[in-house]
Structure formats: structure tokens, C-alpha cells
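Subject: for your reference before the review

Hello V.,

The reviewers asked for a structural picture of the protein, and I figured it would be easier to keep everything in one thread rather than splitting it across files. Below is the amino acid sequence we used in the manuscript, unchanged from the supplementary table.
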Amino acid sequence: MARVSQDHLDARRQQILAAARRCFVRNGFHATSMQDVLSEAELSAGGVYRYFRSKDDIIAAIADDTLAEVQNAFDAAFDAEAPPPLEEVLGRVFASLERLEATQDLAKLAVQVWGEAQRSPSFSARARDTFSSVQRMLVGLIAAYQARGLVTRDIPADHMARVLSSLLFGFLVQHALLDGIDAASLRSGLRAFMLRAGAPR
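And here is what came back from the structure prediction:
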């Protein structure tokens, strides 16, 4: 029997996850059955169970992928020794998250993952790790601005980071629940607030 290549295995796994994402976005985690996933993926039970033992395993894999995409959006925007203006950095994150929502329904899945974290200790740990990582990146970014005199030193960096993380994760929630949300409008609104606040003391 010919050996199946790793590329083939990876592609089949992604086929299953893509089908499951469509089902979960359409019906939610709990209203979706394994049979729904099998039908959507156009695979036999054996073809799916080779990769995932249960629906919970599929949900866990999608949760990991979704949270990783959120973190990657932050990593890409903050990877600079001399960061650009704060509203530009956050605008890049907004735009990255917006692209991921358009191609992978990131926001809709992220909201479901966060909801699942309320009942599942393992999902809760995954979500906390992502939030903590984003918080650390934001603290580092704000500290860099403070060192350059671009942001006030009167307020601790971690306090400001909490506000910014709420704004960014709130953007995902709005994208999942509301129409007409776009990165450009949030970026311009953020810039207006920052200009209104004036120069740091």
C-alpha cells in the first residue's frame, strides 16, 4: 500500500476543520453534530475519526487555531523596534482581524470559543493564555512609547494596556454581532480620541 504523504494528511485535516468551521458558524458548537461535519466535509466517518476522536477534539483544534490567529495579528503589528503612532499600530491589528473575519469567520468563532471558556477549564486556560499574551505585548508597546515621551508616564502601562485590549477584543465582538463595522472607522475614531486627549504630561 502506498504511503500517504504528510502534505495529504495535513490537507485532509484542514478540509475537516474548514467544514467544521462552516457548520459551527452556521449552527453553533452545540447544535452541530459529527454527522453534520461528515456531510459538510463529504467524508466517511473513518476519514474523519482518523484525525479527530470526537466533536470536542475538533472544537479544541479550532479554538487553538482561532486564538493563535488573534495572537498572530498582534505579533505582526507589534514587531518593530521603533513602533509607529499608536493608532497606526492598532489600525494594523484591526485590519488583520478584519481580513481573518472575511476569510475564516474569525470573529464569529472567537465569540463562540470565549463562550465555551465559561464551561470548559481547558478552553478557559486557552483563552487566558491568549489574553495574557496580548496584554504583555500591549504593555511592552506602551512602555516603549513612554520611554520616548509619546505617552504619559503618570498612568501605569498595564492599566492603559487593559483599555486597549478591551477595545481590540471588543472590535471582534462587534464584528461578530453587528453590521457595518470596519477597521478604518475604528482607527479614525481612535485617532480623534487621542488628538482630543492632547500631548502627554
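For the response letter, the relevant points are probably these. Residues 1-53 form a domain with the Arc Repressor Mutant, subunit A fold (CATH 1.10.10.60). The CA atoms of residues 91 and 110 lie 19 Å apart.

Happy to draft the paragraph if you're swamped.

O.
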